[in-house]
Design a protein that fits this description.
The protein is mainly alpha-helical. The chain is 42% helix and 8% strand. The protein has a domain at 1-35. It has helices at 2-30, 46-49; strands spanning 53-55, 62-64. A two-stranded antiparallel sheet has the order 1-2. Strand 1 and strand 2 (62-64) form a beta hairpin. It is elongated, with a radius of gyration of 29 Å.
Length: 78
């Protein structure tokens, strides 16, 4: 009796996962999904957008190194 129940559960699970697998294959063929094993490549200009930052010794705020401005305090180094 237990063997019949186990066999039925196994067959239902195989059919279930089989349909899920076939659906995933069809989705990938249509181009609707990304390849889960492939890492997305960063944009070509990702490094160009990175900018050096400096911290104000007085107030602790971070500012772009090229465009550092005064934070408004009298003893601000910028």
């Amino acid at each position: 009796m237990f063997g019949k129940i186990l066999l039925t559960v196994t067959v239902v699970a195989l059919i279930w996962f089989g349909f899920k697998y076939l659906g995933r294959i069809a989705e990938l063929r249509q181009g609707g999904g990304a390849n889960p094993l492939r890492r997305p490549s960063p944009p070509a200009d990702a490094e160009a957008k990175a900018e050096a930052m400096v911290e104000c010794r007085i107030c602790g705020t971070w500012q772009p190194a090229r465009k550092a401005r005064s934070c408004g305090r009298a003893d601000c180094p910028y």
